[in-house]
Amino acid sequence: MKKLLSLLLACVMGLTLLAGCSNTDPSSSSNGQTDKNASQTIAIAQSANFSMGFAPAVQSYEATYYMNNFYEPLVKYQDGEYQPCLATDWTNSDDGLTYTFHLREDVKFNDGTPFNAEAVKLYFDNMKSVIGTSSNYGQLDMLTSEITVDDEYTISFHLTRPYYNVLNDLSMVMPRGILSASAFNEDGSLNSEYLMNHTPGTGPYMFEGVNDTATEYTFVRNPNYWGEDPDVDSFTVKVIPESKVAAMRAGEVDFIIGSDTLDADSYQELSSTEGITGVISDFDFVTEFIALNDEVVPLNDINIRNAIQMAIDKESIAQNIYSGLRTEANSVMPADMPYCKADVTTPSYDMDAAIELMDKSGWTDTDGDGIREKDGKKLSFTITYPSTGVYDKVVLFFQDSMKKLGIEITTNPIDLMAFMQQVFTEGNYEITAYMSYWFPYDPYTFVANMYPSTDYTDASGIYSTDPQIAKALATMSEEEAKELIAGLYKTDDLDTVQNIFTTALNSANESSVVIPLNYRNEYAVFNNEVIESYTFNSIPNHVDVAAIKLK
Q: What is the C-alpha separation between 507 and 474, in angstroms, rounded?
């Protein structure tokens, strides 16, 4: 289970799936002439099909970015606070062990079945075994001893101990958007076959059909949707592995979202093109980083790690690789994230000081080949990273920076699944290039994964699912680090939580094991003759079709 869940969450963050959209429906055209009496339809392109279907908390990688269109959680995170969604309000007991939610009474699932407390209980009871005990999705499921139906529209979660992050866990559409009973078999297991071509939720849209070649998926409005009607009546997701930018320039595509799909140069080019508008989110929600394995000599020397970090010009990465569309990172988590106010920042770029540190550590180039050595050992490492195209330019920049420092770097781009096996399962790496999870999983998952053990059989039930991040608190002893992070599993006092986060982030910033390079927000481009505007939601790389406003 540990392997499955850590694999899932890391994969959904690393894959390059989202793409542009093409508009071929007669009700809307590239010249902006839209018949308001006709169905308002757009098409969205992505690189791969929905081969895993539409089940949350399983390996439905492609669908991850679309889940919020089909499924809704009890609460949502918006504008810096948790707000009602399928629950209208909630209370928690003085002892922090019971959370009671009052549900909306005007909701049906798109299959016509009623949404009520019994449906919510069935969903969470059944999904507990699917989600398992991994902390990747927070601790709510493992801490819930019982869910009770108090009346038709009131439900309570009973916990074994207080937990500070209940509302955040419940705001995760993936995997806690509520599905109807039709999503499950009689034994409570997920009906995977049904979920290959159904989206039995309460969200604004639902699956309608797919063509014979699985290259066009059609989604329509949920006729039972309880919220405000969106502008877009239906949308088609087209599988276009290549030429999305060309399709936009040719007027065949209306909308492209995601820096995993559209590189910074292409965004700049398209956003300056007549008839196309570019928009950028104002929320830093992902950290791109280099991770050093401090169990590898001499990466166990903090002076070497600091020198490596000081030799990386992060501002140059943000400006030259990402055309100024990302922000230089000076902490392992962006301050935009809840609880992420650190007092200590990472070492700043200073190549001269980095070279001085290397010299003082006894690593020098004695034979003039440009590579430092000590005691007959060359200073050479391999950087392993997913061959998705996301990290290529950053890795080459890093390789060049290390060459200037006198370190030889061999690049090892490998298939994403192989990366997950080698790094996450086996912990077999010297240096990696990767990125953090996104909100709402981070910063909670990131900091929880600083627990310095990946042993999921530990009697405490606490473990890290990410070997890279598990090494982040290298300035602490293992006992100190365990005690610190375990504190997140024992409290619902927010001041205590803040102190734990600040201490952990300070230590991680000092240790130079996880070297943050830049913070990623998100961007999108759209045909402004068809689309009036687009507003990013709290997870900026997720496609929110209901937030598309048409002309």
A: 7
